[in-house]
Each structure stands twice: as structure tokens, then as C-alpha cells.
Amino acid sequence: MKNCCAMAGAGIAGAMAIFPLIRPFIHMIDAERAHRLTVAALRLMPPMPAPPADPALAIRVAGLDLPNPVGLAAGFDKDAEVADAMLGLGFGFVEVGTLTPQPQGGNPQPRLFRLAEDRAVINRMGFNNHGQQAALPRLARPRRGIVGVNIGANKDSPDRIADYALGARAMADVADYLTVNISSPNTPGLRALQDRGALAALLDGVNAARGAGGPPVFLKVAPDLEPADIDDICAVAAERRVDALIVANTTISRPPLKSALAGETGGLSGAPLAPLSLQRLRDFRAAAGPALPLISAGGIAGAEDAYARIRAGACAVQLYSALVFEGPGLARRIAAGLKTLLARDGFATVADAVGADAR
Predict the structure, then answer these.
(1) Does the annotation count 184 as an active-site position?
(2) Residue 17 — pLDDT band, cuts 50, 70, 90?
(3) Catalytic member of 157, 183, 184, 277
């Protein structure tokens, strides 16, 4: 086993080193096919040992002890196939899914587009996954770190709130936390569940389904919200005792973009999302107050990005699209950069820096 881990470490370390050289060739492959090949390669490779814990980077979020605040967002590992491999790449926590009660093919292809000139991605995947029952055996195995499960509703479900309750019940025993994803723009009508009345009913169903002593419940929201929406979401989250908010998912808005693919429909992620995501984080921190943990996602591609979100009030961050352009060593680079930035500004730990710009 020790030799296998050493070989895995050498293989992944080599991939990290040569990624800038091979990226042009990877990007010649259709984006979705390249992603499938990446997951397949990670599945075949013995997981790399996770980096040693660093007290300066460790943080407790919603009762979970994270070795560092850099998380993998949902969407990369839709079917919970490579969580350990991603933890080995240096992520402090991994979120798998979105998983729906029934298997789902998603929207017609092509549905995933790289916007290289903008360091961005547009997707209209549509919660494609093999279903919760297929993922359960993989999630039930012993794991190397914190793994959350992102749950969603099937596109053709007659009762989407019931779908979320089914997901919470099915995943409660195997998830370190559950994320209720009502923020995807690629399932028609899904974002309507962010309305105050619907959201209250949804969270009541999820809380009842996970049971007493179940895992923390996180709520993932969209960035395309009005101030009144933010106030309502924060009020319901407090009333229903949501453990953390993930701010935010992809956007249906379109800032100025250079790529010829900018007109594709779907959710935009990557670098152009960063200003909107940071502003929504600030909005939610102001509306929610300091007690509710916030996790920031959207447009994070380096340590400076992550540090800005932490100073704005995020306890942790998540990324995915930046991996397309920065490669498999990104999580470790961000963690190392965060430690340097914390020391520069006189913070002993990440927790000390959370909300520094909002105080």
C-alpha cells in the first residue's frame, strides 16, 4: 500500500507539473468528454495522500473540522466516484453531486463549453447523474476527509420538494453534510424554490427527512437575486436553522465576454463570475449577520481570490471551473498562498481573518 501511494503521488505530482504543457491538447477535446476522461483516470489511480494538517489553515464550519478552507464544488464528481482522489489533491472538503432520486440523462449535448479567452465555462448540463442509489455504495465506504452530498430534484418530478426529502433521507447516513441545491439555472422552475414560502416548505421537508442527529444542511443559492430575495432567504434560513449557505452558483447574466461561445445558454462560471459572486457574498453577510456560516463559490482561481472571500465573510470557499484552466495542483497552491497571506496580515488562523473587511 505504501508503494502504491508513493506511485500515485508521483503520478499526480507529475500531472501537476506538466499540466501547462498538455493543457492545449486537453482543450482540443470536447469539454464534456475531457471531463469524463479526467474522472476515469482519477478513478483508476490510487488516491494521493492528503497534505498534512496545518493549524493555520484548519477551520470549523457548521460543526465540521476542515483541514483547510478550499473545497471542491459540486459538479465535478457528479456520481461520487473520485472524492478520495480530490481530497488527495489538497482539497479541504469535497462536495459530490448533484444527485437526484432517479437517474437522469440531463439536457441534450453539447451542453458544456470552455470560454478560453475569458477563463470561463458555460454549462447547461441539467443534473445528469446515475441516481442516488447508484452512488450510495461508494459513499458508504470509509473516506479520507469531509465529503458533502449535493441533492436535487428530477426534472420531470411532479413534487420537487418530495424529491429533496427523498435525497435527504437516502444520503443522511453517508454524507458529512447535505447541500440543498435550488440554484441551478438548467432545470426549469428550480430557482422558484428560493421564494420564501416554497423555501420554508422545502427546508421543513428536508429537516424532517434527515432525522434527529442527521448531518448539517447547507443551502446553495443563485447569484441572480434581488435584495428582497436575499433578505427572505436569510430569514427562512435562520427560522429553519440552516447550518450554512453556499453563495453562489452559476449566473444566467452575461458580463462582457470575448469568446465566440458567449451566446450559449446556460450558467456562466469562472473568472467573469468573480465580481458578482463577491458582491453577493457581501450582500448575504450583511443580511445574515455574523452567525450564519457562508461558503463562497464562483470565480475563485487563486489564493488572492480565496483570501478576498474570507476577508469578506466566507468561512470557506469552493471552486471547480478554475481547474479547467489551472490544473490539478490548484487546491494545494491556493492553500499555500492563503497561509502566506494570513501571515502577511498578522492572522494566526483562517478563522481570525473571516469577515475582517466586514467588521
Answers:
(1) yes
(2) low
(3) 184
